[in-house]
Amino acid sequence: MMKTRKIYQFRADLNGAKPPIWRRFLIDGDQDMVYLAKALMGMFRMSPGYHLFALKFLNGNKNKQKAIKVKDRAKLDPETQNKLEILDILSSLVGTQDTEYLMPCDTEDGLEMSGRSADEYEPGTTKLAKTGAKIGDKFLLEYDFGDSWEVTVKLEKILSQKSDQIIPTAVIKGKGYGIIEDIGGIWGLMDYKDAAENGEVDEDMQEWLGEEINLADFDLEDINDEMNSVIEDNLDDYYE
Predict the structure, then answer these.
(1) Which of 1, 16, 88, 133 is least surrounded by CB atoms within 10 angstroms?
(2) CA-CA distances (angstroms) from residue 226 to 26, 49, 155?
(3) What is the DSSP letter of 59?
(4) What pLDDT digit, counting tens, does each position of 171-221 carry?
(5) Which domains does the chain have, with CATH numbers?
(6) Burial class (CB within 10 angstroms; exposed 0-12, middle 13-18, buried 19+) of 174
(7) Rounded distance, CA 201 to CA 204, Å?
(8) What is the mean pLDDT of residues 46-71?
(9) What span, in angstroms and rounded, lies between the C-alpha atoms of 34 and 26?
(10) Contact yes or no for 151/56 (Cβ under 8 A)
(11) Three-state secondary-structure class, residue 192
(12) pLDDT at residue 108 in the model
């Protein structure tokens, strides 16, 4: 019998972009978090070999809400008002941080400089289907900590498909070109958009870009090619 696979449909939005720059894509639940990060970077024209990046599951608030419910029940029940129960309640608040996954750029030297330990991360090899993500849950991709790009990724649907092979990832819809590397983050990108619309892009900017970029352009085939190129790249080679 063929395996029934979970296929996740996400919408990814480049934070701060006006009008929105976004992608809707399908990804197999057997893909891991490093793969998801690479796919996201590729579909927004990011070059992970040149900058650091991070991927988080924004589940901290959800965990905290569960913990608070336990705390409220304990307050209503006099029999639980003892030191041991209070300690249990406090311990339930641990883990209310968002879940961050270890990426290839999180090298030993980098972690040491940031004062963090690999133990603070979940493995980047964690399969998407094992994250516990439900419809409406969100992930956050952070890219280039100088320009500070952010992409919010919301789970829209969980579909099923019978196949013995992993289903290829595909962008199925979207709008907007993506980012321009080293332009100064979303603020620089929006400044460029305004200047281009008013015919006010200066000569230095035009020379630096090499060609005029229309941020409204969206070519589905080109975006999928860009994404697959990044997916196939071995990022470990860049961060050794």
Answers:
(1) 1
(2) 16, 14, 22
(3) -
(4) 999 999 999 999 999 999 999 999 988 888 888 888 888 888 899 999 999
(5) 4-58+100-179+219-239 (3.10.290.30), 60-97 (no CATH)
(6) buried
(7) 8
(8) 71
(9) 16
(10) no
(11) helix
(12) 83
pLDDT at position 206 is 82
pLDDT score, position 135: 96
Q: How far, in Å, CA of 42 to CA of 229, rounded?
A: 7
For residue 227, give the 3-state DSSP assignment: helix
Instruction: Note the pTM of the prediction, 2 decimals.
Output: 0.83
Instruction: Place 137 in a pLDDT band, splitting at 50, 70 and 90.
Output: very high
Does residue 73 carry a pLDDT above 80?
A: no
Closest CA relative to residue 100, chosen from 118, 114, 121: 121
Peptide bond preceding 19: is omega within 30 degrees of 0, i.e. cis? yes
Beta strands in the chain (DSSP E): 4-14, 22-28, 53-57, 99-101, 138-143, 149-162, 170-175
Write phi, then psi, for 116 (nearest 5 degrees): -110, 165
CB burial string 67-96: b at 16+ within 10 A, e below: beeeeeebeeeeeeeeeeeeeebeebeeeb
Residue type, position 10, single letter: F
CA terminus-to-terminus distance, the chain? 42
Scanning the structure block, which residue is given the tokens 């449909």?
Answer: 9
Tokens 């280039």, residue? Answer: 144
pLDDT, residue 100, reads 94
Question: What is the pLDDT at residue 1?
Answer: 74
Tokens in use for 8?
């996740």
